[in-house]
UniProtKB/TrEMBL annotation:
Its cofactor is Mg(2+). Belongs to the phosphohexose mutase family. Keywords: Isomerase, Magnesium, Metal-binding, Phosphoprotein. It comes from Tractidigestivibacter scatoligenes. SUPFAM superfamilies: Phosphoglucomutase, C-terminal domain (SSF55957), Phosphoglucomutase, first 3 domains (SSF53738). InterPro entries: A-D-PHexomutase_a/b/a-I, A-D-PHexomutase_a/b/a-I/II/III, A-D-PHexomutase_a/b/a-II, A-D-PHexomutase_a/b/a-III, A-D-PHexomutase_C_sf. Signal peptide: none annotated. PANTHER family: PHOSPHOMANNOMUTASE (PTHR43771). Gene3D superfamilies: Alpha-D-Glucose-1,6-Bisphosphate, subunit A, domain 3, Alpha-D-phosphohexomutase, C-terminal domain. This is Phosphoglucomutase. GO terms for biological process: carbohydrate metabolic process. GO terms for molecular function: intramolecular phosphotransferase activity; metal ion binding. Residues 17-147, 164-265, 277-376 form the Alpha-D-phosphohexomutase alpha/beta/alpha domain.
Length: 475
């Protein structure tokens, strides 16, 4: 077994850079088995030093060579004396994270996935012992210990079924009797990803009539971009509409985010899904606790939380911020702008499969269709129009805007005076009717993301146009 103190590090090797939760790169621009082995080597080194003999779970999605890369990573991890256990088939990230959180001997997860990115990308994400994200400090340390050459050492890996134990638990989290009595007809679209057969299995066990599309093995996703949003949701929407199904569900490639399609074949926006699920948790299931959202989430979930008497905490963009709040306890729901929902009583990580089951339960117990439920919610909390626009600049201009942003405090935008100004994550301006706008430079790309929400599309777009103009002028 190798040790940290005996290892020679070549600092020139630090060419693999991690994003928020791991490494993603194009398959034709650096993501390959050698890189995977190098990252696994650094992870194994650090985990073995801190937790000798601990278990690491390794999962993978359906992308090109993901299974082979997962086994290569496991062999490297095992060479440090760690117990490396690989999934026996492609599995969603929530599955392997949940399994890790239930094992006392587990120190973390390595998941081979690029989530919702297109087939041209590969990825390796890292999770901690509780199934949630690891710290930025840990990722930085992993980066610093990545060797120039891939290791040749190889230990013995183990293979296990992660999916069945997860499903056995998942189906107990909703009212199976109520769902079976309603016998809803459901279209499931795993978008050729790791959720293939998994969500469909859970729904069938609960008594749903399930039709699964885009489920066959297809490494290039047959032209789909595995993101549960339009236009990639078109075929699922059309199938729901043409077959008269009660609803449809889409999963991104690793299953941590879901999309919901109503009975008319229209996909719900994330800003509709989050408050809908929150209302179900509180009003129908009697649950309580804080609601954690990112600053870019719709005002609708804030209104829903206020209506239900839930304390709301807003944090800067990034699931790691939600995770840190969940560690503090008393959290009912964590919600991201793009529709990722985390239920900390189940897992300190987003789980698109559980979100789908909760929607089925809500429809079954209420006797209402998905669109009726969304309309009912709008009557209670009001209707808002949300959008985002990316202002692309050159790197120097993006940095210039980032530099002036802390001192930016406009007296009016589109002729309207803000009632609240926040620099917590970019510049967020709140107006007296609940409208708001946010200007936020990307942390990784030369772009400023501008968000706007208002009761009408016209007012929303006026705020958006004025704010984009402010970004260009400031750059």
């Amino acid at each position: 077994m190798r040790h940290l103190e005996t290892r020679h590090l070549d600092r020139r090797s630090n060419i693999i850079r991690f994003g928020a939760d791991g490494w993603q790169a194009r398959l034709d621009d650096g993501f390959d088995e050698a890189g995977v082995r190098r990252v696994a080597d650094s992870l194994g080194l650090l985990w073995a030093e801190a937790h000798p003999g601990a278990t690491v779970l390794v999962g993978y999605d359906t992308r090109h060579n993901s299974a082979e890369y997962a086994r290569a990573a496991a062999c490297v991890l095992a060479s440090f004396g760690l117990r490396a256990v690989v999934s026996d088939r492609p599995c969603p990230t929530p599955v392997v994270s949940w399994c890790c959180s239930r094992r006392d001997d587990a120190v973390g997860v390595v998941m081979l996935t690029a989530s919702e990115r297109s087939c041209e990308y590969g990825g390796l994400i890292v999770r901690g012992a509780d199934g949630g994200p690891v710290s930025r400090e840990f990722l930085d340390t992993v980066e610093q210990h990545i060797s120039l050459e891939p290791p040749t050492d190889c230990g013995e890996l183990r293979v296990e079924n992660f999916i069945d134990p997860y499903l056995d638990d998942l189906v107990t989290l909703v009212d199976g009797a109520a769902i079976a009595a309603a016998t809803p007809s459901v279209i499931v679209d795993p978008m050729y990803g790791a959720g293939t057969g998994v969500l469909a299995n859970a729904l069938e066990r609960l008594g749903c009539n399930v039709t699964e599309i885009h489920a066959g093995p297809c490494e290039d996703f047959c032209g789909l971009h595995p993101e549960p949003a339009d236009p990639w949701a078109d075929e699922c929407e059309e199938t729901v509409s043409s077959t008269g199904a009660d609803m449809g569900f889409l999963l991104d490639c690793d299953g941590d985010r879901a999309g919901v399609v109503d009975e008319n074949g229209n996909i719900l926006l994330p800003h509709e899904l989050s408050p809908l699920v929150l209302g179900h948790l509180v009003e129908n299931r009697g649950e309580s606790g804080r609601v954690i959202v990112t600053l870019t989430c719709s005002a609708r979930i804030a209104r829903q939380a206020e209506r239900l008497g839930c304390q709301l905490t807003s944090v800067p963009v990034g699931f790691s911020r939600i995770y840190r709040e969940m560690l503090e306890g008393d959290v009912l729901l964590g919600a991201e702008e793009y529709g990722g929902l985390a239920f900390p009583s189940h897992l300190l990580e987003r789980d698109g499969l559980l979100a789908c089951l909760l929607v089925v339960e809500l429809a079954a117990k209420s006797g209402r269709t998905v669109r009726q439920l969304v309309s009912d919610m709008g009557d209670k909390i009001g209707h808002m129009r949300y959008t985002r626009r990316d202002v692309r600049l050159d790197p120097a201009a993006t940095q210039a805007f980032r530099n002036v942003l802390p001192g930016l405090n406009p007296g009016s935008v589109a002729g309207r005076r803000p009632v609240e100004v926040s620099h917590a994550d970019g510049l967020r301006l709140q107006f007296d009717d609940g409208s708001w706008v946010l200007m936020r430079p990307s942390r990784s790309d030369p772009v400023v993301r501008v968000y706007s929400e208002a009761p009408t599309e016209g007012e929303r777009d006026r705020l958006l146009d004025a704010s984009c103009g402010m970004v260009r002028a400031g750059a």
